[in-house]
Write a structure and sequence with these properties.
The protein is built from 17 helices and 19 strands. It is an alpha+beta fold and about 525 residues long. The chain folds into 2 domains: about 260 residues, 2-Layer Sandwich (Uridine Diphospho-n-acetylenolpyruvylglucosamine Reductase, domain 3); about 230 residues, Vanillyl-alcohol Oxidase, Chain A, domain 3, CATH 3.40.462. The strands form 3 sheets. A 9-stranded antiparallel β-sheet has the order 13-15-11-14-12-17-18-16-19. Strands 5, 6, 7, 8, 9 and 10 form a 6-stranded antiparallel β-sheet that branches. The structure holds flavin-adenine dinucleotide.
Length: about 525
């Protein structure tokens, strides 16, 4: 009897395994039979490419990569997977430019959609729109650098940027899109008028703040959870030809933040305000003024940091060539009200394109030295203004004392420029700081520039924020458990959950964020 039971169990399990295998192997063929204008790739090169990202730490291979030619390719693929129901385990991730840090654009065993192959709608700039600002309609897979070049042909440009432009519209709008213009214009998600979305059930929906507003706001900052952005309408403004780019140093953190906060609160100061920390043992001390000219070369040559941590305030003023005198005068006036170390005033003038595309210039240099495709254990935090001194004292004073293998950005933004109906989570105060530890790890190093050391440093920073109850939120958040996600969203969790149940009820979309598991 026991023998019979054993044989029966083995037979039964084998049948299940065969069925499962048949099921799994039939998935590609059922996908292959979809009538698509574009195509699906199943080859190893395509799958490995889709399993990589800028973070260079997580690699999950999908089963297929969709190269969509139209919105309907995306809609019919998702609808097909949705109709398979929860038992198929297939998930879908939109991949923009793959510049996530922890596999957020990956789909283990699922389908990755290469959004850059979606070329519709063709980019179209609308200049004459009555009393409203001009705008551009773009595909969700369009790179911001391409939008810059196209809109400049009309003398226009988007108002709000990221520091790096080789990212897609869908990728940055799924987070927020923050840079030195955000204090005035808000993040990129505050500068979008209309979206076309493919939801987790394969429906194509047009939405704006007024029309299908709940979906519109869900998707903005929604970490790819509610739909795939296939089209966006982005607000434009007249573009300048040139930029006056200025850097000054502080050793006093209070004076540094006071000046930053004053500048972001006043009207008509600079067009861009950021800042970064110079921890003295980094090469940055000498780097920060590279390609900048000192206002007073003699004084500047005598400046010594004396082992102090320094804070660099970075500002930019846009101008057209014929307005140079007025721009210089305005800049001088604003600078005269700041309390930086006088001998550390450095500036340069560059074209608008060179200014906005500045990180790409560094990318080219780093690539040539083999230093771009390394692990990037980045940590981005949003810190309430009332806690920034406490944070700086402990983090810059105690935790990050030795080195930082990459820039540490720090700048404030105004909460009033963020729309609280979107999905992005920000601190409660009227002003909060973005602090970004943009560290590169040296592969296989076990020292302070190695991955393990940097990760443990990040952990110490997060643990301090938690234990001191600073009210910090992660930007480009990354968590492993739903409990941590709940804590991240706080009172907004219920709304996030409810939106998920409406727009992606089987949790098919963006599994790499690790918020939901198919099916919830
Ligand atoms: P991916 O990494 O491909 O995707 C990111 C997430 O969005 C994934 O979950 C993906 O599934 C989802 N997604 C992608 N496309 C779509 C779509 N069309 N519809 C719905 N969901 C989609 N961020 C800032 O805010 N400010 C900065 O200054 C800044 N600088 C950066 C500099 C560098 C060098 C790098 C690498 C990143 C920087 N970032 C910055 C972060 C960047 O904005 C995000 O990582 C962004 O998600 C990357 O865009 P991507 O096109 O590569 O998206």
């Amino acid at each position: 009897n026991i023998l019979f039971l054993k044989s029966f169990t083995i037979l039964f399990l084998s049948c299940i395994a065969i069925r499962l295998n048949l099921c799994l192997s039939s998935i590609p063929s059922s996908l292959k039979s979809l009538p698509l204008g574009g195509h699906l790739n199943f080859d190893e090169v395509s799958l490995s490419h889709a399993a990589r990202d800028f973070g260079n730490r997580y690699q999950y291979h999908p089963m297929a990569v969709l190269q969509p030619e139209s919105v309907s390719d995306i809609a019919s693929t998702i609808k097909h997977i949705w109709l398979m129901g929860p038992s198929s385990h297939l998930t879908v991730a939109a991949r923009g430019h793959g510049h996530s840090l922890q596999g957020q654009a990956q789909a283990h065993g699922g389908v990755v959609i290469n959004m850059e192959s979606l070329k519709v709608p063709e980019m179209q700039v609308h200049v004459d729109v009555g009393n409203s600002p001009p705008y551009v309609d773009v595909s969700g897979g369009e790179l911001w650098i391409n939008i810059l070049h196209e809109t400049l042909r009309y003398g226009l440009a988007p108002r709000s940027w990221t520091d790096y432009l080789h990212l897609t519209v869908g990728g940055t709008l799924s987070n927020a899109g923050v840079s030195g213009q955000a204090f005035r214009h808000g993040p990129q998600i505050s500068n979008v008028q209309l979206l076309e979305i493919v939801t987790g059930t394969g429906e194509v929906v047009n939405c704006s703040a007024e029309n299908n507003g709940d979906l519109f706001h869900s998707v903005l900052g929604g970490l790819g959870q509610f739909g795939i952005i296939t089209r966006a309408r982005i607000v434009l403004e007249p573009a300048p030809a040139m930029v006056k780019w200025i850097r000054v140093l502080y050793s006093d953190f209070t004076a540094f933040t006071r000046d930053q906060e004053r500048l972001i609160s006043a009207e008509n100061t600079f067009d861009y305000i950021e800042g970064f920390v110079i921890i003295n043992r980094t090469g940055l001390l000498n780097n920060w003024r590279l390609s900048f000219n000192p206002q007073d070369p003699v004084q500047a040559s005598h400046f010594k940091s004396d082992g102090r941590t320094l804070f660099c305030l970075e500002m930019a003023k846009y101008f057209n060539v014929e307005e140079i005198d007025a721009a210089n005068q305005e800049v001088e006036e604003h600078l005269s009200r700041l309390s930086y170390i006088p001998s550390t005033l450095f500036s340069t003038e560059v074209t608008f394109v060179d200014f906005l595309d500045r990180v790409h210039i560094s990318e080219v240099k780093l690539r040539s030295k083999g230093l771009w495709d390394v692990p990037h254990p980045w940590l981005n935090l949003l810190i309430p203004k009332s806690q920034i001194h406490n944070f700086a004292e402990v983090v810059f004073g105690n935790i990050l004392t030795e080195t930082s293998n990459g820039p540490v950005l720090i700048y404030p933004v105004n909460k009033s420029k963020w729309d609280n109906r979107t999905s992005v989570v920000i601190p409660e105060e009227a002003i909060f700081y973005l602090v970004a530890f943009l560290t590169s790890a040296v592969p296989s190093s076990t020292g302070t520039d190695g991955l393990e050391h940097i990760l443990s440093q990040n952990k110490r920073i997060l643990e301090f924020c938690e234990s001191a109850q600073l009210g910090v939120k992660q930007y480009l958040p990354h968590y492993n458990t739903q409990q941590e996600w709940r804590a991240h969203f706080g009172p907004h969790w219920e709304t996030f959950l409810q939106r998920k149940s409406v727009y992606d009820p089987l949790a098919i979309l963006a599994p790499g964020q690790r918020i939901f598991q198919k099916a919830i």
